[in-house]
Design brief:
The chain has a six-stranded parallel beta sheet with strand order 5-4-1-6-7-8, sandwiched between helices. Strands 2-3 form a two-stranded antiparallel sheet. The radius of gyration is 17 Å and the shape is elongated. The protein is about 45% helix and about 15% strand. Helix 1 packs across helix 4. It starts with 5 loop residues before the first strand and ends with a helix. It folds into two domains: about 140 residues, Rossmann fold (3-Layer(aba) Sandwich), CATH 3.40.50.1000; about 70 residues, DNA polymerase, domain 1. It has about 220 residues and is of the alpha/beta class. The longest helix has 19 residues.
Length: about 220
């Protein structure tokens, strides 16, 4: 691998785990709409990586619930924007210090299929605004992740970014955009054709060390 000119991160399953908080928000939305169903964090876990509207369709269809999906999405999005800054999630080991290290040598960006407020909530809760030069969500620009990756690269004139994610969908989108994919094996999903894979965020930081690229040259 040649040295990248930027690192772009997925959020859920890559930088933190917030599934319990998401489940709480879903369950509050169910209650507001008079729906008796309830979800656990583990049940939401398997849907992470899809866009929010796709997750809603998958979950509601699986449970046989008959509701206005657009209204559910509207209420869920409002509840997430209201509650996630307080509920937050748990950063994976090594993420905070690793981001601080990487930010000394690379532009860091965020790209997620979450709601419009998702990445702002993440940065607010973790106090990491200063480490990222840009962030983009599916909620803000509802197109496939591959297109949003290309959009960020073109916007900032990157030619060789690395995207780090935790699902096969992340990998497919990255390769469709023509970039390098780093698979977080510790996350939510699986992947069979990543460009490289790591078992921890600390391992990822070591692999991206500028010293390593200097030695290889």
């Amino acid at each position: 691998m040649t040295r990248p000119d930027a690192i772009i991160f997925d959020m859920d399953g890559t930088l933190w785990d917030a599934t319990q908080s998401y489940a709480q928000i879903w369950n509050e939305t169910f209650a507001q709409m008079g729906i008796p169903s309830r979800l656990s964090g583990q049940e939401l876990h398997i849907h992470m990586g899809s866009s929010l509207d796709e997750i809603i369709h998958q979950v509601i269809t699986a449970q046989g619930i008959h509701i206005d999906l657009n209204e559910f999405l509207r209420r869920l999005t409002l509840n997430e924007a209201r509650l996630m800054p307080r509920l937050g999630g748990t950063l994976y080991d090594g993420v905070r210090s690793g981001l601080e290290t990487l930010a000394k040598d690379y532009p860091l960006l965020l790209l997620s299929n979450c709601s419009a407020s998702g990445l702002r909530n993440f940065m607010h809760f973790t106090g990491t605004h200063h480490l990222f030069s840009d962030a983009l969500t599916h909620g803000e620009r509802p197109v496939p992740k591959s297109e949003n990756l290309l959009f960020l690269a073109q916007k900032h004139r990157f030619t060789a970014p690395v995207y780090m994610g935790d699902t096969q969908a992340d990998c497919d989108a990255t390769h469709q955009a023509g970039f390098t994919f780093a698979f977080a094996r510790y996350g939510f999903g699986s992947c069979h054709d990543s460009d490289f894979a790591v078992d921890s965020f600390t391992e990822f930081v070591k692999l991206l060390s500028p010293d390593r690229f200097a030695q290889s040259n």
